[in-house]
Amino acid sequence: MGILDFLRGKKAPSYDPTNIKITDLDEGFVFDYDLQSWTVKRKSTYDWGDNFFSYEYQIFNGTKTMSLSVEEEDEITVEISTPISITKVDDTLPQYINTHEKAPYSIQFEQKEYRLVSESPGYFQKDSNSEWEELITWRYESRDSNKLIDIDQWDDMEFEASISYSIKPYEISNILPR
């Protein structure tokens, strides 16, 4: 950033422009994944407490929209997810959770069994201008550990589900800001 940029009111980027990392992603950024170019349409934030945050990016390749989740704790965890209908997982699941005040130990989806691996209460902010919303997420893992299903409860009867798989951070490349 030069002195003229400072005088014009331009802010310095929060990332190193010569070494942009997956943890630097923001709205409008473009990157390559799976031989396609993707644009970040929206950045959302999860606050899981104890100063632990994760980020979800709505990404679009011109024909398909998916979510890219990035967590950085001891190492960087990256997942690609797509929403699925809660009724396709189990249409009695919301009632079960409300009645028992907990999620079942296992669920079935597309003839695969998924086992409960975590329960995480937290807060979600859709974008930097929106209010924080409270949620509980139950994470299920397939027996072969290849796929994950997240069940999110937003309100007594408001549930969402998504299926995801992990990728390596290096699979995201050529990250460029707009």
Mean pLDDT: 92
Query: What is the overall number of helices?
Result: 3
Order of strands, widest sheet: 2-3-4-5-10-9-8-7
Low-confidence stretches: none
Which range best describes the helical content: under 10%, 10-25%, 25-40%, 40-55%, 55-70% or over 70%? 10-25%
Note the gap between the termini. 16 Å
Helix/sheet category: mainly beta
Number of DSSP strand runs:
11
What is the succession of H and E elements?
HEEEEEHHEEEEEE
- Strand content is over 45%
Quaternary structure classification: single chain
Nearest-angstrom radius of gyration? 18 Å
Main beta-sheet strand count, sense and barrel state: 8 strands, antiparallel, barrel
Overall 3D geometry?
globular
Describe the structure.
By secondary structure, the chain is mainly beta. Helices cover 10% and strands 52% of the residues. It is built from three helices and eleven strands; from the N terminus they run αβββββααββββββ. It has an eight-stranded antiparallel barrel. The protein starts with a helix and ends with a strand. The mean pLDDT is 92.
Topology of this protein?
Blueprint: H1 3-7, E1 30-33, E2 36-47, E3 53-60, E4 65-72, E5 76-84, H2 86-90, H3 93-100, E6 106-109, E7 112-125, E8 132-142, E9 148-155, E10 158-167, E11 173-176
